[in-house]
Amino acid sequence: MPTIAVVIIGRDAAGLLQNVQQRNLAVFSQAQRVVYVDSNSSDQSCRLAKANGWTVVKLDPGSVLSAAAGRHAGTLHCQEDYILFLDADMELQIPSFKFLNRLDRLRAEGIAGASGSIVDIFPTGNRHTRHSPEPPMGDLLHFGGMLLIDRKALLSAGNWNPDVIAHEEDELYSRLRKSGRRLVRLPEMVCLHYTDQTSLVRSLIMNYIPLTAKERRVFPGIGMAFRSAWQAGSTIDLLKITPEPAITALAFAFILCLGCWNGWLSVIPLVPWMGFVMTRRSLPYLAVCPAKTLQMMVGLFCYRRKPLLYNEM
After folding, report:
1. I need a labelling partner for 81 at 20 to 30 A (CA). Which of 35, 112, 209, 235 fits?
2. How far apart, in whole angstroms, are the C-alpha atoms of residue 137 and residue 62?
3. Tell me, what CATH number does 130's domain have?
4. How would you label 143-153 residue by residue, b for 16+ Cβ within 10 Å and e otherwise?
């Protein structure tokens, strides 16, 4: 069976390491390596991870602190055939990694990795399964914090870009697709994701007006992803993955131009734009699309390259 490493990223995750990750230890024992990458925690996260026998890597607080930075550093500490990326708040629901054999046989078809179903669990106990439209073994449209990938394919695509603060998964996927690699949905891959629940109103507000330091930090993320993709030559692939911000910009440009000529004509581009967004996303996402376009424009000018500094404990 191919070898596998697990890379977990976290910050101030002591509680999660003591609870959620303890329930992962049985399946982790089948991996050849587990790497925990810490983003400047102030609690006992690193000590707890070390006590599990894991490799612990700590990002330098004066360097880049992002999910992509943690995954980038974690990748560089692995030598196995495959890497499974998880966030500290994710609990696997698989008994073993036996499905690696089936995935490995598909390398010749350009399949470099896979993801699966993520079940969000909120503090109230409510659950929400992120339903994926892809059929089993169908090409992924998107993926979140859980990703299983061929290490060499990841490195050949340039590894995670630590300077992309948010939407780093889409940006990486665009480079993988540009290189001819595919990611598929494995029905065996399921994880529970313990997270906070944000109301629709609060979510809408933070997309337009970021109030907290964290919200302001990730606000331009999608634009950073597009700037990085432009530099990597994978812009077209990123547009295929997440076209809504660019399509919204074009639609509103047409609406403005036609509205200046004849107000009634501005309805013409509005209808197909709404149909496009609702088909790919949902009706509520219509309210978010203009915010994503704004974030894209801001992020295009906020993107900066910084050296990634870290050390192994």
Report:
1. 235
2. 41
3. 3.90.550.10
4. bebbbbbbbeb
Helix (H) and strand (E) counts for the chain?
14, 10
Tell me which amino acid residue 88 is: A
**116 touches 190 (CB < 8 A):** yes
Does residue 295 sit within a domain?
A: yes
How far CA 94 is from CA of 98, 187, 205, in Å, comes to: 10, 10, 37
The count of other CB atoms within 10 Å of the CB of residue 266 is: 17
Going by C-alpha positions, the residue among 294, 244, 237, 71 that lies closest to residue 164 is 71
Residue 107 belongs to a domain: yes
Task: Report the alpha-carbon distance of residue 120 to residue 29 in Å, rounded.
Answer: 25
How many Cβ atoms sit within 10 Å of the Cβ of residue 79? 11
Q: What type of residue sits at position 258? A: L
Domain count, the chain: 2
pLDDT in tens, 255-306: 888 777 776 677 788 889 999 999 888 888 899 999 999 999 999 999 999 9
Alpha-carbon span 103 to 170, nearest angstrom: 21
Q: What is the pLDDT of residues 40-96, one digit of tens each?
A: 999 999 999 999 999 999 999 989 999 999 999 999 999 999 999 999 999 999 999
Range of the domain at 293: 200-302
* pTM for the whole structure: 0.94
CB 301 within 8 A of CB 219: no
Domain boundary among 170, 197, 224: 197
The token duo for 42 is 């102030």
